[in-house]
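User: Second chain of the day. Same drill as before.
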Amino acid sequence: MKFGTVGLANFFLDVGIFNLLRIEVLPHRVITCKVISSGIAAVSSYFMNRHWTWRHRARTGMARELPLFLVLTTIGIGITLACLAFTHYVLGLSSVLADNISANVIGLALAMVWRFWSFKRWVFLPEDPERDEEAAEAAVRTTV
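Assistant: Same format as last time:
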């Protein structure tokens, strides 16, 4: 539920920025628009997921999590961009509506499945009870 809420908030952020760029700023650079909007939403998503969705999971440090998160997110963005590029450049469906359907409906849905699975699998790891017990025992030994 939390992952979906974070996803929905960042969906609106991504779509809003994409459409602002697509219509007003860079109307003939749809891939650039999507890269920018997705990048902004990805950074927002990391912090929302780390501190709310997956806060109960082990903290392995931002130095490990953030680069891994960005690599996996980049793959998700690639999925979205592939859908957009295919419909826009291969099929010739280049209207704002067609770009939104291919990138922000089909592409984001496929990318969301990838991100949920990959984040849960590799970024936000489950708690390790053995590691917690070892750390507690080590802390007791050093204080005694």
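DSSP finds five helices and no strands in the chain.

User: Great, on to the next one.
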